[in-house]
Amino acid sequence: MHIRRFDRDYSRRRFLAGLGAAGTAGVLAPLWPTIARSGEINKAYPDELLSIDEYTKGKVSTGDTIDASNVEHVRDLLDEIKYQQIRDMGRKLKIGPTTTEIMRLSPWEYLEATLRNQGKAQFDDRGNVVTPDGQPWIGGNPFPDAKTGIELFAALTLSWGRHDASLYAIKEYDIGAQGDLEYAYDLVWAELAPVARVSMDPKPYWRAHMDKLRFQSVIFTAPNDIAGTSFLNIWDYDQHVFPDLVGYLPEFKRIREYPTNQRFEPLVPGGTLFLSDAWAAGDPMYTWGNYEIVDRGPMLTGISDGWNPDHPNWEHTTHGGPKGQTFWDTTVELVPEAIAVEAEPTSYSRAPVGKKRVWFDARTGLPIAMNSYDRKGNVWRSFDGAYAIYDDGNGRRVMDGDHPYWSWAHVHCYDIQTGRMSRLEQVREVGAGHQMQVNTDNMYDDYLTRNALRRFG
């Protein structure tokens, strides 16, 4: 007979004890010192948090599919919207093994910089992350052993995709409440970091833009009636300052400046994705407030198996909902420790959102789910996706320099009050020859200037 030394009640007590400001990730040992020694998480967590078989006492096993018939066995591992989708809408989740090797959970150079720069980050008198000599951050996660909600959001806001420059080729599908495909778009989404650079030269700073945190654009390439519609966000490093937001609308043939605080509406008809939703941290950090860690514990989410190399364009398959096309086919795994943080939009007097709750993977600080709530406190929208190392272990891989590419693979943006769903997937290429890029020198000139927007328009 196998006797468990540490059961679920022990882990739960340990997580509850870690809700305060002094909380440290890990159950059996502090997490990040364990990772620094071995690159593995095993010694920081008991078996019951590393195996869904152990956690559910055999009721659910690796390789099983979670559906309405067995979802109650894992209800405490799901956010409330995902639980309702499985129970009532036919959503299914395939269970994969827990990833224990840290270098498979983020870009290689980002994690190396995290280990190299541990202990060097601090907040200045404005609350921005700086080095001990007051300079902008130099790369990697500044707070890998985050003890507060603001530390978790600071790391996420500093680097969304964890690459110095990323161009995502994206297909978006907007599904109505009756399950019909109502809109479909091709777009490219570009992000470039002038600071905290770990791969591209010059690093850690592009000194001409050291006062900026990121350049970010979204450019729609299809269908024809919306092709050329584009938006450019330029973020200040100071997280109290709203980004500059400009857009190009082909019907007006000119660049237009937008009110940058209107971040809670879709960019194009049919969508449920807001600018505010990006990476669960789409707004400057101090335009939100009252950050509070409200929960810790294991969670099921898509961490490492989201890439689909079987399709030449990496496109994913779907299931569920009234017409079988509401949800991506998704593999999830047991994340041993997720940290839930709530925040409120303190600088947006007209925001329809009352608060958001974001779950972070304690191992990496990555956002793994987000629910937002309306002004009455009712759950409203969810944002959940899947990540991947783009390497199937059988010779099919996408490279990022010397290492396989790591990134997000697909995302659900669901409005539970209207029943509308936006599904987005990262693909190899969208129309007009726009292909996924990572850490390429030409990205700024090609996608992240006003002239670039005009050229696409």
From TrEMBL:
Protein name per UniProt: DUF1329 domain-containing protein
Could you tell me which InterPro entries the record lists for this protein?
DUF1329, TAT_signal, TAT_signal_bac_arc
Q: Which Gene3D superfamilies match?
A: Lipoprotein localisation LolA/LolB/LppX (2.50.20.10)
- Organism annotation: Spectribacter hydrogenoxidans
| This protein's UniProt keywords | Signal
Q: Which Pfam families match?
A: DUF1329
**NCBIfam families in alphabetical order:** TAT_signal_seq
